[in-house]
Amino acid sequence: MLTAIYPGSFDPVTLGHWDLIQRAEKLVGHLVVAVLHNPTKRPAFSVAERVDFLRELVQPYPNVEVTSFHGLLVDFARERNAQCIIRGVRAFSDFEYEFQMALMNRKLHSDLETLFLMPKEEFSVLSSRMVREVGSMGGDISGFVPAHLCERIAARLKDSGAYV
Ligand code: PNS
To answer: What's the confidence (pLDDT) of residue 91?
Structure first.
């Protein structure tokens, strides 16, 4: 049974992330969606909020788990006996960063493969950064985040007033 980790910041989760989770869970036995706890960044949403949003989404999928991790992804992968990492590529602009990260992870853990999946074309220009920017200025984010989380995400972004 293949265990895969889908790591990310998910600040906040977008329809692109959600599309990728649904594609990945069909391919692997166990999918661990892992939110990076990065003390050097000031995220719009706390790790607990991001984990809660994702847990609500994956509730119908018993083979999908949501958690957070600190430090190196390869160490977390070893801890969880994961054989592969799932990452999304939306456009050519994602490629260089993803390529470097995949090769670095493979240098650090030679048995760990990175699988790249493409989200639906309509999500190819969608990012958490854009959701934060549009939402914090009161714009409509309903086309970008899962419907039943939209109100909560929009309210938090508007309140924070943070234009990231
Ligand atoms: O959603 P993001 O911000 O593009 O996700 C990036 C993430 C969390 C996958 C990446 O920053 C990561 O794996 N960080 C953990 C630290 C690490 O392992 N770094 C070495 C790989 S370059």
So the answer is: 86
Superfamily of the domain at 3-124: HUPs (3.40.50.620)
Please check the confidence at residue 59 and state whether its pLDDT lies above 90: yes
Cα(8) to ligand 1 centroid in Å equals 6
Q: What is the pLDDT of residues 93-152, one digit of tens each?
A: 899 999 999 999 999 999 999 999 999 999 999 999 999 999 999 999 999 999 999 999
Cα distances (Å, whole numbers) of residue 89 to 35, 63, 70 = 18, 23, 23
pLDDT value of residue 162: 67
| Alpha-carbon radius of gyration of the chain | 15
Pocket-forming residues, ligand 1, beta carbon under 6 Å? 7-9, 36, 72-73, 101, 104-105
Residue 108 CA, chain-centre distance (Å), reads 22
Q: Where are the domains of the chain?
A: 3-124
Residue 63 CA, ligand 1 centroid: distance in Å: 23
Residue 43's identity, in one-letter code, is: P
